[in-house]
Specification:
By secondary structure, the protein is α+β, with helices and mostly antiparallel strands. It has helices spanning about 15-25, 25-45, 50-65, 70-80, 85-90, 95-100, 185-190, 195-205, 265-280, 285-295, and strands spanning about 10-15, 105-115, 115-125, 135-140, 145-150, 160, 165-170, 210-215, 225-230, 235, 240-245, 320-325, 330-335, 345-350. It has two domains: about 10-100, Orthogonal Bundle (Arc Repressor Mutant, subunit A), CATH 1.10.10; about 105-350, Penicillin V Acylase, Chain A (4-Layer Sandwich). A hairpin with a 4-residue loop joins strand 6 and strand 7. Helix 4 (about 70-80) packs across helix 5. The protein is globular.
């Protein structure tokens, strides 16, 4: 299905001003996201939205300790969208509430080649969130400008900042949930980081309360995979300029048990094959070549580019909702909304 190009929502000013503009601009999409997650929590966890709001309250206390400034922005998103602050908190803690018993997809990689540091990934999730994807360009008063591609009403997901820091996300299914920042709040703190050391410290010092994989890189050509959880994260260093990840844990000395879906390991093996064996070892590589990797259908339906699979239970059907390629060196993000194999154009945003 062909998707229209998304537009970029530019948000500037104080935390309150940024949140208020976010909420007002995307009020309809935020309301739809709340409806989607009401259904999703029921399908995955067997609870309704009112019960999810109660669960989210404890994460608010963790945010207050680790990143209190973002709460002002979240409250303002709620004000702008005409919903309660607890609704926006619950939306931003959706991973902690739902992913203990279910996980999405996502195939991500970092690649240093020809003097350019790339980050790229597909985001695979429930199809009913496809039209609630937003692109936010945020220029705050206490951090460098940043771009985040994610879901309306959420403070961050996948993106980069003007300092050349970028981050991708892989969901991990695990029953672990402890003390730390919720995943999407931690992603925003990474996107506000001035350098790679500060970005990594979000995982090693602040900690993340539930398991996920953060693929973090900078414009200098450094990249590291962080399998985050409430303890010390597992680290995956670049090999030949490459780091790859899907939806299972594989760093040495893992401290957390995960429950990956059967497609995760085949997708990781295919990413490794494409990046280590199919790409030229020298010379420049452009976005189109990397989008080819994100469009790969080898081994479908267990493929990197995920399409509707009627063989899966309805609540587990995940599809690729967007593909993103970032040149951190050139501060350029290219987005294909919908499946990257079908999108005819990419939205390009620069910092």
């Amino acid at each position: 299905m062909r998707q229209a190009l998304l537009s970029v929502t530019e948000l500037t000013g104080s935390r309150h001003e940024i949140g208020l503009a976010h909420g007002r601009t995307h009020a309809r999409l935020i309301q739809r996201s709340l409806e989607v997650y009401d259904r999703l929590f029921h399908d995955f966890v067997g609870i309704r939205w009112a019960d999810a709001r109660v669960e989210a309250e404890r994460f608010g206390r963790m945010i207050e300790r680790g990143f209190p400034e973002i709460l002002e922005e979240m409250d303002a998103i709620a004000e702008g969208a005409g919903v309660e602050p607890i609704d926006i908190l619950t939306l931003n803690c959706r991973s902690e509430i739902s992913l203990t018993r279910a996980s999405g997809g996502c195939s991500a990689f970092a690649l240093a080649r020809g003097g350019t540091q790339w980050l790229a990934q597909n985001w695979d999730w429930r199809t009913d969130q496809l039209h609630n994807v937003v692109v936010l360009k945020i220029s705050g008063q206490d951090h460098a400008p940043l771009i985040s591609v994610g879901e309306a009403g959420m403070v961050a997901k996948i993106g980069m900042n003007a300092k050349g820091i970028g981050v991708c996300l892989n969901a991990i299914r695990s029953q672990t949930c402890g003390e730390g920042l919720p995943i999407h709040v931690a992603l925003r703190k990474i996107l506000e980081s001035p350098d790679l050391e500060s970005a990594v410290a979000v995982a090693t010092r602040d900690r993340v309360c539930s398991p996920a994989h953060f693929l973090v890189a900078d414009a200098k050509g450094q990249a590291v995979g962080l399998e985050v959880h409430p303890g010390e994260p597992g680290r995956l260093e670049a090999e030949g300029g490459v780091v790859t990840h899907t939806n299972h844990l594989y760093a040495d000395a893992n401290q957390v048990e995960d429950f990956p879906r059967p497609d995760s390991r085949p997708r990781l093996a295919r990413l490794d094959e494409l990046l280590h064996e199919s790409l030229p070892t020298q010379g420049e590589i452009g976005e189109s070549k990397l989008f080819e990797i994100l469009s790969d259908h080898h081994g479908e339906p267990l493929s990197i580019c995920r399409h509707f699979n009627p063989a899966q239970p309805e609540e587990e059907r995940m599809e690729t909702l967007f593909g993103v390629v970032m040149s951190l060196t050139e501060r350029r993000l290219s987005l294909r909304h919908g499946k990257p194999c079908e999108a005819e154009q990419a939205l390009v945003v620069t910092l």
